[in-house]
Amino acid sequence: MFFIRKADQHDVSDIAHIHFTSWHATYADLLPKAYRxxxxxxxxxxxxxxxxxxxxxxxxxxxxxxxxxxxxxxxxFTKNNECEITTLYILPQxxxxxxxxxxxxxxxxxxxxxxxxxxxxxxxxxxxxxAISFYKKSGFEPDGKHSEELxxxxxxxxxxxxxxx
Length: 165
Prior knowledge:
This protein has helices at 12-27, 33-39, 42-52, 99-114, 129-137; strands at 2-6, 58-65, 70-79, 82-90, 119-125, 141-151, 154-164. The protein is α+β, with helices and mostly antiparallel strands. The chain is globular, with a radius of gyration of 15 Å.
């Protein structure tokens, strides 16, 4: 059985670990190895999440099991009547168990209850088809916006997906 709660400063290390582990597994076949090695570093993630969790504009929800092990999280921020999901990661061994949906629902419920957002958006790697499929099932659709990054000989393209609230 899994549960969802609002994350706090005590969760920084676990969130960083989940982010690091899941990011590596998710992008193993989608991004160049040199890029993955440069961008995915556990001490960097710990420092990053230490700062993020202190930010008042960011909301993070964490999934944990009945033994109190943190296994996934979602994070979003609000700006000018728009909300953006910045991260949704679940440890690989806990994926496909419905946790993504539970985390997404917790974030949407929190947004609906406390914010005045008109839309909810997120950015996803264009070739991350499993994630795109999940987001479509959650009511998101691509809106035509994209960002491109050139890394060595690889073009990395993210697309924006949006859901009306």
